[in-house]
């Protein structure tokens, strides 16, 4: 069964200062249930993550300041949020959601988090609506518990996974792959193991070609036993921030490529939702729902 991390706090706790609609965290589960893609028992409610898992990735002083609401206004502005206790609770739940997804993926082949994809969080700071890095924390937990030895993180959000790249820059057991808008945020890029910067306005065929050829190249020399997929849908042509021209159909094809890869190679896969900022919420929900439909269809 497809197991999906979802907690009401994902949408009940609205981060102060957030400029984009949060209703997708509520509407997406409703849509998946309404259309019959999944049943109610597909969802699991994550608890608060154990602090030790966070400290395996993030600096203790940063974590102490973050949890103690001691970060200064400049640091808070860089994250895009005004910090309060509710926001920190939400973050702890999201982190545990992705870590728990790893447990389900090891059994069922794939698991997904309705939230997450917080790839702009570095070891010692947050930025770009990311306070802690969920996929990095989960990947490090897998390595530390010896449930994985070689991890491939496929980051297909329109924004570079700069925090993830920095966290694992010296770790040969984690391969970071980011295919993102070359002229988009962040202005200063980090160095992933493989970065594919995309030109503004790229369309479906070229996007899919670059993705398939990049994955093929990675797998020539790196043999993962676990996959993470940051499945941001801000690559679609209706996105306010994306600057690319990939259709919703093309975005779905992207998902099919990654999820089929995991299935064909028998690699456990954890998917975090990532960004999506189209003007009309229906485009956001449809593009995100396609990722869940695809996982359900391919694996189950």
From TrEMBL:
CDD domains: HDAC_classIV. It comes from the Bacteria. GO terms for molecular function: histone deacetylase activity; hydrolase activity. Keywords: Hydrolase. Coiled coil: none annotated. Pfam families: Hist_deacetyl. One of its GO terms (biological process) is epigenetic regulation of gene expression. Residues 18-286 form the Histone deacetylase domain. Belongs to the histone deacetylase family. PANTHER family: HISTONE DEACETYLASE 12, HISTONE DEACETYLASE HDAC1-RELATED. This is Histone deacetylase.
